[in-house]
Write a structure and sequence with these properties.
Layout: E1 4-8, H1 13-24, E2 28-33, H2 41-47, E3 52-55, H3 61-71, E4 75-78, H4 87-90, H5 92-114, E5 128-134, H6 157-176, E6 180-185, E7 188-189, H7 198-210, E8 217-219, E9 225-226, E10 229-230, H8 231-243, E11 250-252, E12 258-259, H9 260-270, E13 279-281, H10 299-305, H11 313-329
Helix pairs in contact: 1-8, 3-5, 5-6, 7-9, 7-11, 9-11
The protein binds NADP nicotinamide-adenine-dinucleotide phosphate and guanosine-5'-diphosphate-alpha-D-mannose.
NADP nicotinamide-adenine-dinucleotide phosphate binds near residues 40 and 81.
Keywords: Lyase, NADP
Protein name: GDP-mannose 4,6-dehydratase
GO molecular function, one term: GDP-mannose 4,6-dehydratase activity
């Protein structure tokens, strides 16, 4: 029998890459989708044809229990979240409910469906659980690079909600003996990245300027530094974590950090453009509290999981710019009609 995986957040960037990876590994893949007319569902149905969809919402405990009962998964990947950091200041309560309490609801669905109680710990052949934790939890970093032992100091309601989900996952592992792990993933990008995140905003901006569809690109803080990797590499790490002999948390990143300014230089350079002629700094795009510097130490993942990133920062930026040039030149809609989807 094929192993079964249930993915929340199947309509997002990581959900698509993880589904493809697990299908290639021979899994039966189920994806949780929300809403009665979610505009992203037709895209998933069209492009990930072998994925089975089940309705549910991270805000609705009963729907998650039903989804677990229906999919009968061996593995659950909780990728669903409100994931755009600025939105977490605008809708802090909703972010807490979806990104934080949503983790509790998924863990409870697994616990209830598995008949686990304080007296009856997790059985053999238990459902394995992956939580999408984030380097945003490190926030105002206490040390660089950041490891699995670096303390958290989140700087956004999103980071705080992720820290709650992270500790709760650890707690369910310790309280009930569940195979529940968190991947502390640093920023990972791709041509499928949402247009609101800075890498995609820049690659789309460059493509529009190159094709004469725009003349300027407005950005916020150019000095922030991130450890940017390729999403296709990072989903392999999620699967490796759930395939390991012991449930443990891992930092996943490239170990190299670049500023937004360097990202901009590389992206405009990839299209043969001079960024200083087009980029406008807009202080309204600055955040109430910024995460200035993120840089991973992925040694544990390398030595224990054998995980390595394969795409460099420079190749990632070039890949995204080229994909957006093709997309816009073909007259396609970046949100609805992205040919970089499978
Ligand atoms: P994404 O593209 O923003 O996808 C988020 C997903 O969450 C979407 O499928 C969305 O579904 C779903 N979702 C939102 N609200 C929901 C709800 N109430 N119930 C069920 N699903 C809901 O994010 P991503 O980049 O793929 O990231 C995947 C996960 O990794 C997220 O948890 C994110 O916080 C975390 N993470 C990402 C990175 C990164 O750099 N990408 C780094 C560290 C951690 P709809 O289509 O219905 O809105
Ligand atoms: N989005 C955006 N838009 N960011 C900008 C802009 C802009 O116009 N100008 C500068 N930036 C800076 C932000 O201030 C931030 O320092 C950096 O670019 C990266 O912003 P995002 O791409 O929005 O990502 P993020 O680091 O806030 O969060 C992403 O990575 C986290 C992991 O560290 C998201 O994917 C989170 O969900 C994820 O957990």
């Amino acid at each position: 029998m094929a192993r079964r995986a249930l993915i929340t957040g199947i309509t997002g960037q990581d959900g698509s890459y993880l589904a493809e990876h697990l299908l290639r590994e021979g899994y039966e893949v189920w994806g949780l989708v929300r809403g009665q007319a979610n505009p992203r569902v037709p895209r998933v149905r069209r492009l990930l044809q072998d994925v089975r969809l089940v309705r549910g919402d991270l805000l609705d405990q009963g729907s998650l229990i039903s989804a677990v009962e229906k999919a009968q998964p061996d593995e659950v990947y909780n990728l669903g979240a409100i994931s755009f950091v600025p939105m977490s200041w605008e809708q802090a309560e909703l972010t807490g409910e979806v990104t934080g309490m949503g983790v509790l609801r998924v863990l409870e669905a697994i616990r209830v469906c598995s008949g686990i109680t304080a007296a009856r710990r997790s059985p053999a052949g238990q459902i394995r659980f992956y939580q999408a934790s984030s380097s945003e939890m490190f926030g105002q970093v206490r040390e660089t690079p950041q490891t699995e032992r670096t303390p958290f100091h989140p700087r956004s309601p999103y980071g705080v909600a992720k820290a709650y989900g992270h500790f709760l996952t650890q707690n369910y592992r310790e309280s009930y003996g569940m195979f529940a792990v968190s991947g502390i993933l640093f920023n990972h990008e791709s041509p499928r990245r949402g247009a609101e995140f800075v890498t995609r905003k820049v690659s789309l901006g460059v493509a529009r300027i190159k094709l004469g569809m725009a003349s300027e690109l407005r950005l916020g803080n150019l000095e922030a530094r991130r450890d940017w990797g390729f999403a296709g590499d990072f989903v392999r790490a999620m699967h490796l974590m759930l395939s390991a002999a012991e449930p443990e948390d891992y930092v996943i990143g490239t170990g190299r950090t670049h500023s937004v300014r360097e990202l901009v230089e590389a992206a405009f350079g990839a299209a043969g453009l001079d960024w200083e002629r087009h980029v406008v700094c807009d202080s309204s795009l600055h955040r109430p509290a910024e995460v200035d510097l993120l840089c991973a130490d992925p040694k544990k993942a390398r030595t224990q999981l054998g995980w390595e990133p394969t795409v460099s920062f420079e190749d990632l930026v070039a890949m995204m710019v080229e994909a957006d040039l093709r997309l816009l030149a073909d007259g396609r809609d970046p949100e609805q009609d992205n040919p970089s989807w499978p």
